[in-house]
Amino acid sequence: MLHLKLATDPRWVTIVEKNIEEILTDHAWCEQKAATNAITIITLNSEYPDLVTDLLLLAQEELVHFQMVHDIIKKRGYTLGRERRDSYVNELYKFMSKGGNRLQSMVDRLLFSAMIEARSCERFKLLSKEIKDPELSKFYNDLMISEAGHYTTFIGFARKYGQDIDVDKRWQELVEFEAKVIKNYGKEETIHG
Question: Which intervals of the chain form a coiled coil (predicted)?
Fold first, then answer.
């Protein structure tokens, strides 16, 4: 369903397990950024009532996920660390068209968002299957399902409103671009690292 070209090496989970506090902090901030991203899309495209309605719900869900991760952090006696820079997302951002019309910008932002959700879903699936911690295994399985829904929401709106844009072609270009970017990741205890 996600159409990613390159799967995460399962050895990434071994890296994650060596520093659970770090992955949880990074994950918490990823959820916060996902909520902010949804609000940004709403702000830039408020003339689409169905998009606003659905992305408000998505932003709220991302904030609930942020709280859920924070609750696990507190329960385990950890502290939410400072916000982390997400190099993967920053590199992926370079794909988006600079200039062009508002519709092209909206479609690119939606596809960019769909890709981040797809990669997060793929990583959560891997964590749910491979991590030795039963609580986190179940937690990441539940979140994987949610991320798949977010991916579908973003790509669905790109297709719905990208009338004069070959959205599927643009998506394939992003899939190819992401495959080149992700080759450099999977070596750190971060969701996209």
Answer: none
